[in-house]
Amino acid sequence: xxxxxxxxNVYITSSRFLVRYTRxxxxxxxxxxxxxxxxxxxxxxxxxxxxxNSNVRVDIIERLPTPFGLVRYGVxxxxxxxxxxxxxxxxxxxxxxxxxxxxxxxxxxxxLSQLFTYYSAIVLAYGADSDRKLEIPGENAKGFLSAxxxxxxxNGLPEDVSLxxxxxxxxxxxxxxxxxxxxxxxxxxxxxxxxxKTDICNHALLALRESKIQRxxxxxRRGPLQVAFTIKExxxxxxxxxxxxxxxxxxxxxxxxxxxxLPRGRKRLIELLYKTSRQSLHTETSNKCLEISYLRxxxxxxxxxxxxINSITFEVNKLQDHNSINTKAIGTGVYExxxxxxxxxxxxxKSIPILESVPFDNIKHVIPNERGKVTHLDGTLYKGLxxxxxxxxxxxxxxxxxxxxxxxxxxxxxEDLTADTLQSFNTDFKxxxxxxxxxxMVNYTDWSSLDxxxxxxxxxxxxxxxxxSIQEMIRIMNNK
Amino acid sequence: xxxxRIFSRSISYKRAFFIHTASLYSYNFKSIHxxxxxxxxxxxxxxxxxxxxxxxxxxxxxGDEQLEFNxxxxxxxxxxxxxxxxxxxxxxxxxxxxxxxxxIEMEGACDASLACTTCHVYIQPEFFSVLLPxxxxxxxLLDLAPFLESNSRLGCQVLLTRDMQGMFISLPRVTRNxxxxxxxxxxx
Lengths: 480, 188
Ligand SMILES: Cc1cc2nc3c(=O)[nH]c(=O)nc-3n(C[C@H](O)[C@H](O)[C@H](O)COP(=O)(O)OP(=O)(O)OC[C@H]3O[C@@H](n4cnc5c(N)ncnc54)[C@H](O)[C@@H]3O)c2cc1C
Ligand SMILES: NC(=O)c1ccc[n+]([C@@H]2O[C@H](COP(=O)([O-])OP(=O)(O)OC[C@H]3O[C@@H](n4cnc5c(N)ncnc54)[C@H](OP(=O)(O)O)[C@@H]3O)[C@@H](O)[C@H]2O)c1
Ligand code: FES
Fold this sequence. Notes:
The complex is a heterodimer of chains A (480) and B (188).
Chain A: H1 3-26, E1 31-36, H2 40-52, E2 56-61, H3 70-73, H4 85-94, E3 98-101, H5 112-118, E4 121-124, E5 130-131, E6 144-146, H6 147-155, E7 171-175, H7 179-189, H8 192-195, H9 202-209, E8 215-219, H10 231-239, E9 243-247, H11 249-252, H12 267-279, E10 288-293, E11 296-303, E12 309-319, E13 329-339, E14 342-345, E15 349-350, E16 369-370, E17 373-375, E18 381-387, H13 390-393, H14 399-418, H15 444-457, H16 470-479
Parallel strand pairs in A: 1-2, 1-4, 2-3, 4-18, 6-14, 7-8, 7-14, 8-10, 9-10
Antiparallel strand pairs in A: 5-15, 11-12, 12-13, 16-17, 17-18
Helix pairs in contact in A: 2-14, 6-7, 15-16
Chain B: H1 13-25, H2 29-38, E1 56-60, E2 66-70, E3 72-78, E4 84-90, H3 95-101, E5 120-123, H4 125-128, H5 136-142, E6 152-154, E7 168-170
Parallel strand pairs in B: 3-7
Antiparallel strand pairs in B: 1-2, 3-4, 5-6, 5-7
Helix pairs in contact in B: 1-2
The structure holds flavin-adenine dinucleotide, NADP nicotinamide-adenine-dinucleotide phosphate and FE2/S2 (inorganic) cluster.
């Protein structure tokens, strides 16, 4: 009975949609939005914008020949489900209103003023390509690595694959207790037979097979209540076969009475830490262990005569307020040392300014903005310029947070487009017109051929074997 | 005990899902296989599927039990822009696939493999207790969903049941000032 009106409704909506869509494809007047960066922020901004405004066409401009940002070069190889998002992103690349321009670094190969000549709006979504430093003596020692670069190394980021990773010692120390620190610990400890089935790069797999690391120490400057990792990642670590997670019982005793008072999102995590601390003992079957240690700030990276790390000196901290999540650590003047042959600084990524003319907040390391619209340092709005993702909010948050944030930016762009404050165009334009001849740009078809090649190199057991040299990528694309 | 025991009131929704979706949707062969295995007496599935049509059938069970299956329920999504979108879902179908059928912008980045939280939804509070409780894995993820509320669930994990008739499901609105991961970093 009621099926007919509903059906008609759908019919009407879809025909209206079709008319609008077709009109937008052939209409002369349209808006062009250039998005800088092809990580989740870039894709989700594009997706929402295309949905909100049928008069928009989007170009996604990427520094690397390959799309997807940290989904390809950050997300751990043993988290293939997280990478399913690539299917959605690829569908967007197949949309006639969205184009991919890879191997173009904005700020180097092309300037912002050049882009503004051809685009109604520019969205900066270039993420965080650097990392925070500890600023302590010995930070440049051999064997003291940035976790960000180590992640790039096992995930095949071209600039990081030559990183010198020496896994010949027994103990590895990781400074910081975020999810990246957990990723690094898990990769170091997971039996390589499990990693063999992932898209981890072959060079990393070979090195990990030879690894002598038995003990990984995850050191935080605050206490168990303030850890930055999340419960899913902790649970995964605890489930690793043949690995024991060691938590000192005394460090966690104080938690029991406060667990029930904690907000959702913290409560279950702390509960799990507490429970684990009651039972963590070295088992007979495990030969490797992960230790979680608190209230220690690194003060010196000590080296041997060859300049290679051999230990780290930590100052023991106490907390201003033991029971508060948002509290500060204070040094006690007591020091202790942990011996190790390799260590990782995993205290957060950091965004850097890539364009001189774009305002940058040098304290928070983000582009100042109002709901995604870039503001000058005096608070006035920057016409036509927007930002999205980690560059907008700082390098925190999972893909879902980045998505919400990108949606907000897309809505801000859409507001300005509807208010007719931005320039529209009535001719077609190709970014290649702006790029000097001889520079190899990468389009979606090129990427597809590279993708196919990687999948085929993965053979039977791996989902893909990533190609890690840009020259080789280009050669493969040229040969197809 | 008759062969039809599984159709008693204690039937799990998951199993109901297999039976109904197999008859309606031909999603995957496994479910058809299961349906046939469980219900030889339902060898002909008479309904042709149309997403825009409510389907209402009852099965006569052997023995004295009569169970009525409303195979679809009407629920309403409130999308990110605040629009109300009434839809008709199949029992056993998850909210993510339902939203996708109606082109509602629910992301589902990990393809329902419980790894992303982008299918985060709010369930109308009156209906929250009607839902099967969430698993630990779902709770682990929800803990890090932006804009978490007490009526939050992951859309890909919520399977429609008859009791959800008339339920409202809203998507997180895009707002400012959310903090992520429940972690509050400290400036030193
Ligand atoms: C190690 C690691 C693991 C993670 N694992 C998970 C996980 O399992 N699940 C989860 O939900 N989240 C995970 N995250 C978080 C998730 O990756 C981020 O939320 C998300 O990638 C941020 O998106 P973005 O687009 O802002 O930045 P990015 O993903 O970094 O994308 C930025 C893009 O811009 C490009 N770019 C940089 N400079 C330029 C330039 N000058 N011109 C053009 N392009 C440029 C970069 O090459 C890059 O492709 C992880 C993060 C890290 C660091
Ligand atoms: N599987 C996943 O979902 C996944 C995987 C990887 C990354 N991510 C996401 O990506 C984001 C980035 O992760 P991240 O681990 O790089 O950052 P993060 O979560 O911000 O963690 C940084 C850690 O470093 C510590 N730290 C900062 N400065 C320090 C200093 N000077 N000395 C000692 N310790 C210091 C912090 O402690 P304080 O709290 O005391 O500052 C914190 O423990 C996070 O939002 C994370 O959830 C997600
Ligand atoms: S779609 Fe990823 S958790 Fe639901």
